[in-house]
Amino acid sequence: MDLFRHISTFDFPFINQPSTQHRNAKFKRKLSLNNATAHRPTTANNTFKIQYAGFIKADFELTRSQAYGEKLTLPYQLRLFLRHRSWTTLTLAGLKAIVTVGLMQKTLDVRIGYGWRSFCSENELQEGDNIFISFPNDNFAEVEIID
Asked: What GO terms fall under cellular component here (predicted)?
């Protein structure tokens, strides 16, 4: 097959064959697109960090609506983690109280629903607090305030 290709391009120079440089550039571009990671802003100041080291951990700053609202919309990477679980409730352990909250799941959105406001008030969470969430076990999260 290579011999035929070589003969045909040699005998008919007007046939436009893609050069190896063009093919290599196309391959490199495809590789770079496949290896690219999508970065989405998760909070106003992008303080969200997530790690996979035995269990999942995340920290972010609470806004006014998150600290005093009925529900908590989670950062993007944490939503991805929770979306693949079939949990309907989640137990949050704070410094002062442990509360079971409901998880509201739609196609791409996961929120902490009922029980979030009582968890915030019992653990005295306020606007501007940086909270650290870790999931050491299934369906159980530890929530801490960090400086």
From this structure: nucleus
